[in-house]
Input
Amino acid sequence: CGKPFETPTSPPRDRAVILRELLEAIDRRQPVALATVVATELSVPRRAGSKMLVYPDGRTSGTVGGGEMEARVRAEALEALAERRPRSLTDDVVDPGQGDPGVCGGRAEIYLEPHLPNSTIYIIGFGHVGQAVAELAGWLGYRVVAWDDRDELTEVEVEGVVRTGGDLAAALAEHPIDEHTYVVMVTRNVDLDAQILPLLLASSAAHIGLMGSTRRWSTTRERLEVEGMEARSLDRVESPIGMEIAAETPAEIAVSILARVIEHERTH
Output
């Protein structure tokens, strides 16, 4: 039935296939959890090092043993993805009648590691504040995309920033907003806000913040409601954007904005 806590590794070829698929998922910005058998005791179906990928829809690739044990691993992996936190699972493989393949009281320790797309800061408006947000967001490790309809501003170089301009609909088609994207609107007037907000609200952005006074947002919201936008959709916009820290300079405003993004990312 095997020895207590054996730790031989699974075939390198199997691991290479799973790790290659993991990297491909990360490149596609596809959330996925990696389950790895880290230690075993007595009789278990897969050895330490065996790996399985679990996708948000429950689909799996690879195996950590099949049967009820694997079903439990899949369920725990989905919870790890939802919570955005790794976890460990110890599973007793003891009852063939319940779908477990072991008959010797085997046990497997499995580590579940969620891999989520790097969050994106999508800056709408690349003036002084937008540039300051881009610099700080890049330093914090975010993926940064910046759009402006003024050609001279899209030519401003900030290291690591994907810059785009022209028609916003075309820019969104080329650089889509997903559920891991935080939109930072630091635009110049109500007319522009009213023009582009319907496009942004049609996206699956995790958060949309708009810089400006309460009165400015009230004016923009009233205009969009008259044009037929639903209140529930407009409620997604947070304005004024950022945390209240009495910020004045573009750099200080960027700190305020990204502090709010970090808070939202950690608590939602």
Notes: Residues 90 and 109 are 4 Å apart (CA to CA).
